[in-house]
Amino acid sequence: MRPHRRQRDTGDSSGVLPHRRRSPMATLVLTLALLGAAGTPSGARAVTPPGAGPSESVCEPRTLALPGLTSTSDTRLGALSDSGWAAGTSWEDEAPYSAVVWTDPERVVHTGVGGATRANGNTVSASAIDVNEDGHVAIDRWTSTPRGRLLTEDAVVWSPRDGATVLRTSRFRPRASVTAINDHGDVLGHVRGRGHGSVPVVWQDGERTRLSVPMHVKAYANDINNNGLVVGTFYDRGSYVTGSWTWNGGPRLQTLRPTDTTAVTEATHVDESDRIVGEQPVGPGGGVRTILWRNPAASPLRLMHIRTVDLHGSGYLAAVEPGFRGYGATAYVGHRRDGGIKARLPEPPLAQGALGWENVLAAGVARGSSAFAPQGGVTIGGYAQEYESMTSQAVLWTCSQTRLKS
Length: 406
Prior knowledge:
The protein is mostly beta strands. The protein is built from no helices and 29 strands. The protein has a single domain, classed as TolB, C-terminal domain (Neuraminidase, 6 Propeller), CATH 2.120.10. The protein has a five-stranded antiparallel β-sheet with strand order 6-7-8-9-10, with no helix packed on it. A four-stranded antiparallel β-sheet has the order 1-29-28-27, with no helix packed on it. The N terminus is likely disordered.
């Protein structure tokens, strides 16, 4: 269940710094014994049901910087779960990336995926893209030569009990990437190969199902919920139309209704009630507006001018104002009520050597009591970037719902 669209590390109009692939580092591997055998991280508190607990309306908001594998590591948060898991990436300058999980504000654990340099100089990097309520993490892993040539791409699932499992691909499309994982462990992603374009797939119990996409259509899958509903975007090479679609095990993709002002939409996230959020372009300057389909058959409602990057079933949103040409992105907490309301989140403290944050981005939203937020409430996860020193810092904003006006 994708709190957040985990776009592969290419950067986009949101101002996200491109994920650099780096060369050798000595990997610090922390013991997996820090984690409980299953489900909730050891030391984490039981999840408070959404809306429960009188402390949620009065808790004190905090901004927490999450640690890396070493004191000098850069970090980036990819996803959160209500049960107290956070997943992301940690790396050193000029070194391969490692997929990591956090179980409380002081504890980071290497999943054992990525962060390796082989004897021939090739590096193995990894980035955690999504996490579900059982702490199962969907991970992109790739191998590169010392000169940066990409050799392999794998879709990996890590669990606290079983460690890492590489998902199966095919002879003709051996390369794979992930975009989301739901609470049943179903993984959404893509496979591709030389001469064979990228196609969306779902892995269920290790078995791969390819979604049926017409030859003239390029489709990208963004999210999957616990009902098995997949949402994504398409580009029709024949009609030059860009739009959104859903899939729930049928023989073909189902097109979502466009707005009454433009046919161009991008469905990015779906909650457990099959509500779908996405975006549509606004104006010539790269602006975006959040849109909401109340169900797959509904016409979309236009919400606020902002990019929603994660949707919680309670209506809370993690959102980003993209900035301009890669600078000035800002993180927000929001809610879909009343046509959409939002509040800007504060910048985290500057990391050592940083001159100032160029971008502060949200990535995921969770709700309830956890080791990160013992008082409950809404937690937004994200990261801040500083270009001059190429610094990145994973961040949590707890009790974020108190920043929204009633």
